[in-house]
Known about the structure:
The model is unreliable at 168-180 (pLDDT under 50). This protein folds into 2 domains: 3-172, P-loop containing nucleotide triphosphate hydrolases (Rossmann fold), CATH 3.40.50.300; 183-532, no CATH class. It is built from 22 helices and 7 strands. 46% of the residues are buried. By secondary structure, the chain is α/β, with parallel strands linked by helices. The protein is 59% helix and 7% strand.
Amino acid sequence: MSKEVLVIGKESAGKSQLIASLSGKAVYASNFRGSTVACEAFRARDYLLIDTPGIQRSADTEAMRTAMDRLKEADSVLLVAPAAHLEEDLQDLLPLVEGKRISVIVTFIDRIGEARRNSIQKFGAESGLPFVYLNARSLSTEDQDACHTVLGKPVAYTAKLKLPPIRTFGASRSQSATRKVSTFRKCAKGLLALVSLLLPGVGVVWFANDLAGRLDPLVRAALSPLAVRFNYPLLTGDYGLLTMGPLLFVWAVPVVILYALVLGAYKASGLVDVLSDALDPFLRPFGLSGRDLPRILMGFGCNVPAVIGTRSCSTSSRDTCISAIAFGSACSYQFGATLGVFNAVHKPGLVLPYLLYLGLTTLVYARLVTGRATRSPLNILMAEHRTRLVLPQPRAVWREAWGSIRSFFRTSLPIFFAITILASLLDLFGILKDLAMIFRPVMWLFGLPAQASLGVLMAAIRKDGLLLLSRTPMTTVQTLTAVYLAGVMFPCIVTLLTIGRERSWKFALRLLGRQVLAASCFSLVLAWLGRLF
């Protein structure tokens, strides 16, 4: 029978990477704060290692409570701490394991100098604790044997156990004197971070559009004989599979894949946390913190894991973060479909004003739905600024990106095909015209043609339905308004169900009502003010 060992440590201590190296299995965790949000078990030789969310003693996150509840039940505990922050981590973690049998593994030993490494070695020898230090990303056979050795010889820890003074091997970087940063430097740093976040997205869009522009005529030429041979409404009608298919495969798929890889590189390198820290002061007035930003960015891959990831957000800002994800995180399906519509109507440049308006209105919406206490500068939303930049390993980047790409092909494609078949049937039997008449007054309020109602309705179910807007002739302002309205009016059904399970169904319904109201107001502003330009 395997011996169960609970693995604890602060965020970004390298717990998940260590477990992955020891168990030989991919642990879905990233080099950014709070990437582990639930306890998971992994077998490594004679041990069952329980991975836990990062510990923050003064935090109020759901993930923190999960880790502490599991710690109360544990008997054998493995403490994991990075070499650069060993002192402060032991000071915070040792009081939590009073009366338990513990071992200690120090990670990221490759990122410190020789003098500090010798000091850590001396501390380990004098502490009397089962102690080993290593590079968790690259474990040798000797390192793995050493890990299993310390796991097999845990020591009961009590406050009476005399450890060498922490000061014997110097203060860590986080304890060094800090300089007061001027307002100008903060603004410059924030602006640089914002540009660094947006620039890759712009590059992805440009490259994907250029690639799609070259492939589109080739794909349509290849499909032309099929359209002539199988001239059926379900295949070649306005909403047929052969008609709508190129929009998805040529215009949407490259964006999904490329953006997933870019975001994966940002997360695996730790860059997403560096940028989040820089933008933190500017997010506070909107009830968010830099800690929440990675979850909002995750939503551009898929809203579901992003909502689940908010367990690592402060309780005071979690609801605001979930609201921002549901409103403004254009998931890979939505973003790809949006580009497909803009390119189908030969207006690819609309993606820039679309993203700017989406970002601006998301911040306004977050400001409106958050409480005054959360927005207060006196409310320190927990985030330890201990970011480490590393060269992203290809396997780590692909592991991050694969989740979004797999979800797109497994989930989005079948639903997209179902939507096109349903739309074709509605068009074939004349029901589409009846729906257009019913929703004509509503569409008129937004300055849209009645036919746009189908795309808006389908997007309420799945964001892939946005592609149906490409079949409706519209002006530039109408196209921008229709895509924005369809994208933010409702969170998709799967996202809403996830929010209900994570928070409560009452919260989910309240969020839905607020989002419909806010999206309607923002769309009206866009529709009618847009006519002035």
